[in-house]
Amino acid sequence: MLLLLKLAWRNLFRNTRRTVLSGLAIGLGLATLIFFDAMMLGMMDNMVLTATATFPGQAQIHHLHFRKTLEVEDTVADADRILAELGKEPEVRAFAPRVLSFAMLSSAADVGSILLYGVEPEPERRVSRLAEVVAAGDYVDAGAENRILIGRKLAENLGVDLGDRLVLTVAQAGTGELSQEMFRVGGIFEFKVREMDRGMAFIPLAKAQQLLQLGGRVHEIAVAFKDLKTASDPNLPFWQKYSRDGNEALSWTALFPELKSLMDMSMFSLLIMAVVLFGIVSFGIMNTLFMSLYERMFEFGVLRAVGTRPSGVAFMILLESASLALVSIAIGIILGWGLTVFYQAVGIDYRGLEFTGVTIKDMIYPVARSYQYLVYPTWLFVFTVLVGIYPAVYAARLQPAKAMKRSL
Amino acid sequence: MAKAKTTKTAEPLIQTDKLTKVYRSGEIEVNALRQVSLAIQPGEFTAVVGPSGSGKTSFLNLISGLDAPTSGRVLLKGQDLNRMSGSALSDFRRDHIGFIFQSYNLIPVLSARENIEYIMLLQGVPPAERARRVAGILQEVGLQGFENRRPAQLSGGQQQRVAVARAMVSQPDIILADEPTANLDSKTGETLIDMMQDLNRKQGMTFIFSTHDPHIMAHASRLITLKDGRIEKDDVRRRPARR
């Protein structure tokens, strides 16, 4: 065993240039995979953060039926108690109560149906980016009750600008009676997401509750966790704790199943990429092994002649294959780690790119995980050794006299 | 088929029975050996001679199990090589046959010592015993001080000495040598033959050479001449050494 290992290792470095080139090629494949995985994780984190932080939050608490119907009646049960409890949750960074309802907004020029949100300015500032995306005028001001914050596209559609008058019509809770009130455009926001900029408007929470005859009730509590991973954890006790008394607490994975599917698809794409990459790498290894084998055919004949069993020859080739894999893994890990660390420092600029309705707003920073340095190298090792089986069996089956050509 | 002369002993070391080898290359058939039957006794110092293409190499390949005959059989120490599996044949060669090749054929990545040790490692000889035997054989072939050199760092003569040491150190019953002096200058070649003959006399080791070298022919106890795959002449000159 030790002898065969020694032979395999020394044989590997007989043609140092070829071994280094092969190791570099295989290592580059591994490094690409490690880096691509880290980049995808960074991009996904970025997209989820962008999608959740833009407005919805990483989690939401509603009445059990509210998401399906948006019925004004379906308010969060015992919202005050929940808000008090959320304030004590160690993993929760911020939360904001909201009221929302279908509404109609009319200007002198046109009419538009919208989703009206009543928000508390300060808590909302900590949960969403609403305050950051105000492009003109002011953010929601609890003291300015009849000021409304509308999207850029909605303003264009209604033909209004800052200070212009709008009439808001909503259906009240309980009676369903229509309630109308005049507002002036206090601010214009721009999320740069068409649906939001065209169909959302914000007024102070208390004003919305008054218009909808809700009293102190709310329809939604948006939650931001200290760590996004917490919000992604389906086993977090939080979901059960707040999914009772007719309420439901949902993570972003349930709120945006399309984003979750995109992540799953991305991971599947990565798997396909890994298989293709390892496939290419494998044929490279097989080629290297066969080249080495043909060059040393005579030696294999000699090894067999002096008493090495066919299995011994095969094992030696597999050891060479495994040694090549180890060298390549070392190169791949160093390159992959180096690339990841470099781009963690400088970031990857995809800002402004819209992907499945989410506009990337921040630099993407690759995320390193231990599995990238354990799972992929293990795959590579197994692939390389598996690929070595064919040349190993080929060498083992050689007729010594034929292998030596000139033979005895 | 030429009739082989054999020395009369109880059990020959090697016995071939109507050994035939036909090589096929497409439509062309080449009869390398044609029904060769002979017996080789322990301790012989036999030279197989003949022109190129006469079947010398094929004969050595077949009697060592490096190649399979088209028909006929080879009995080595009473065992039919044709009936052995690949692994069994490898073990048999490891334990009973030493090889010396024309081009030395040392393992380039192993030092002289490691090349010599190789077969003993396969045999599972304990380290102390290996070291003792290697030291002894290095002295015998005059290579002390060269043991840590790799083949590329040795001259042709030195490499062939390592090859001889490798063949002998495992104490096989028979050593097969394919034109061992072909790549050596005459002086080195003669020294090598003298050394092998000395081993043959002292240890009774059986040697079979294929050769064109008149010096080997002159020293051989038996001269088998092949022509067109048949034994043309089988000349036993003197009694072989006993093991």
Number of helices of chain B: 7
Strand content of chain B: 25-35%
Share of residues in helices of chain B: 25-40%
SS strand fraction of chain A = 15-25%
Q: What ranges of chain B have pLDDT less than 50 throughout 5 or more consecutive residues?
A: 1-8
Taking the sheet with the most strands of chain B, its summary is:
6 strands, mixed
What is the topology?
The complex is a heterodimer of chains A (408) and B (243).
Chain A: H1 2-12, H2 16-54, E1 59-63, H3 66-69, H4 79-86, E2 92-106, E3 111-119, H5 121-127, E4 134-137, E5 147-151, H6 152-158, E6 165-171, E7 178-189, H7 194-199, E8 200-204, H8 205-211, E9 220-225, H9 228-232, H10 237-242, E10 247-251, H11 252-255, H12 257-295, H13 297-305, H14 310-346, E11 354-355, E12 358-359, H15 370-396, H16 400-404
Parallel strand pairs in A: 3-8, 5-7
Antiparallel strand pairs in A: 1-9, 1-10, 2-3, 2-6, 2-9, 4-7, 5-8, 6-7, 11-12
Helix pairs in contact in A: 1-14, 2-12, 2-14, 2-15, 12-15, 14-15
Chain B: E1 14-25, E2 28-40, E3 45-49, H1 56-63, E4 71-76, E5 79-80, H2 86-96, E6 97-100, H3 112-123, H4 127-140, H5 156-169, E7 174-178, H6 186-203, E8 206-210, H7 214-219, E9 222-227, E10 230-236
Parallel strand pairs in B: 3-8, 3-9, 6-7, 7-8
Antiparallel strand pairs in B: 1-2, 1-4, 4-5, 9-10
Helix pairs in contact in B: 3-4, 3-5, 4-5, 5-6
Could you walk me through the main structural features you see in this protein, from its secondary elements to its overall organization?
The complex is a heterodimer of chains A (408) and B (243). With 408 residues, chain A is an alpha+beta fold. Chain A is 54% helix and 19% strand. Chain A has helices at 2-12, 16-54, 66-69, 79-86, 121-127, 152-158, 194-199, 205-211, 228-232, 237-242, 252-255, 257-295, 297-305, 310-346, 370-396, 400-404; strands at 59-63, 92-106, 111-119, 134-137, 147-151, 165-171, 178-189, 200-204, 220-225, 247-251, 354-355, 358-359. In chain A, strand 2 and strand 3 (111-119) form a beta hairpin. Chain A is elongated, with a radius of gyration of 32 Å. The two termini of chain A are 28 Å apart. Chain B is an alpha/beta fold and 243 residues long. Chain B is 34% helix and 27% strand. Chain B is built from 7 helices and 10 strands. In chain B, strand 4 and strand 5 form a beta hairpin. The two termini of chain B are 31 Å apart.
